[in-house]
Amino acid sequence: MKKIEFIRNILEANEIIARRNQQLLDRHKVFAINIMSSPGAGKTSLIQQTLTRLKGRLSIAVVEGDVASTVDAEKVQSDAKAVIQINTRNMPESCSLMAAMIESALKDIPLDDIDLLLIENVGNLICPSEFILGEHKRVVISSLPEGDDKPIKYPLIFIDADAVIINKVDLLPHVDFDIDAFRHSVAGLHPETEIFELSCKTGEGVDRWCSWILAQVKSYATKQ
Amino acid sequence: MLHHMHEFGITENIVNIAVTKADEARASKVIQINLVVGEMSGFVPDCIQFYFDSLSKDTIAQGAMLHFQLVPTQLRCRNCSTIFQPRDTLWSCPKCRSQSIELSKGREFYIESMEVE
After folding, report:
1. Cβ contact (<8 Å) for A156 and B25?
2. CA of A49 vs chain B CAs: smallest distance (Å)
3. In CATH, what is the architecture of B2-116?
């Protein structure tokens, strides 16, 4: 018996495809955002709001990741340039999107006609933190009914987040959610994270989020 | 629950790496694979071994034991640079109480070595 010593990252296979995805996106000057949250935090609502408000200013494609159904894809259909639904139920993994799934979705997206790709990940705060997809920015949504302790319970996904959205702020009078404590936890894990307070239902705060996207896309386009 | 986790694809990667490395070393059998897994990483060792036993069938890695070295979470205070291990889920520095904390260890997930014959 002999021992072979070598260090090999087990996630490398996913990361290689993710890098390839990003190179493809960069060739076509498409800025990509990976949107993650637990189920029901408002990923689809945020995408709908974003599409409506940025219509005419950015050409946007959406990738919808769900365990099953095309419900979310149908909701965003009208305002998006292209919508690709990925159902993970029949795949070996169903808990997160993986770079290979995005690689095949990109084949069906008219990359030359779009500026922005919004990727709605599977609702889950654990698994998506392990798998990069080729995105340029990672965004996490937390909503008031979930409680303010999510960054403490699921630190990894917040450590890597470029922006964190606090959704459903219209419910503040009805739930115990300490926004300052939440902001403090997020900033502790990643001091540079942008934090947005908004409500996809009332529209409050959504413009600030959209301005952030516009600024990100603009600064990306000048770098390419 | 097993089939809802992401360990399947991960275990395929482990089998592929092991078989390739064993071939390169002209080995005929993989006896043990030593993996390093951080406490914070979202991978479940029992689940990986479960998939490994079926995914390695009819390869030279069939029957190999997976050995997991678990790395405890280690944190670093951004304010005073104290290195510490968290005592509960709230990450705060034991020295200066700051909650501005970096994860310095605990996300590892790699193969470190293999025993072959």
Report:
1. no
2. 31
3. 2-Layer Sandwich (3.30)
In angstroms, the separation between the Cα of residue B93 and the nearest Cα of chain A is: 11
CB B48 within 8 A of CB B10: yes
**B65-71 and B109-116 beta bridge pairing:** unpaired
Q: Is the pTM of this model over 0.90?
A: yes
Q: What is the pLDDT of residue B5?
A: 66
Q: Do A130 and B117 touch (CB under 8 A)?
A: no
Neighbouring residues of A63: CB distance < 8 A, sequence distance ≥ 6? A83, A84, A86, A97, A102, A105, A109, A117, A118, A119, A120
Bridge pairing between strands B74-77 and B83-84: antiparallel
Question: What is the predicted pLDDT for the residue at B4?
Answer: 47
Indicate yes or no: CB of B40 within 8 angstroms of CB of A156: yes
Per-residue pLDDT of chain B (117 residues; tens, 9 = 90+): 344 468 888 999 999 999 999 999 999 999 999 999 999 998 889 889 999 999 999 999 999 999 999 999 999 999 999 999 998 888 999 999 999 999 999 999 999 999 999
* Chain B residues near any Cβ of chain A (below 8 Å): 3-6, 8-10, 13-14, 16-17, 21-22, 25, 27, 31, 35, 40-43, 78, 89-91, 98-101, 103, 107, 109-117
Six-digit token string for A113: 């006609």
ipTM over the 0.90 cut-off? no
Tell me the domain boundaries of chain B.
Answer: 2-116
Q: Which domains does chain A have, with CATH numbers?
A: 12-223 (3.40.50.300)
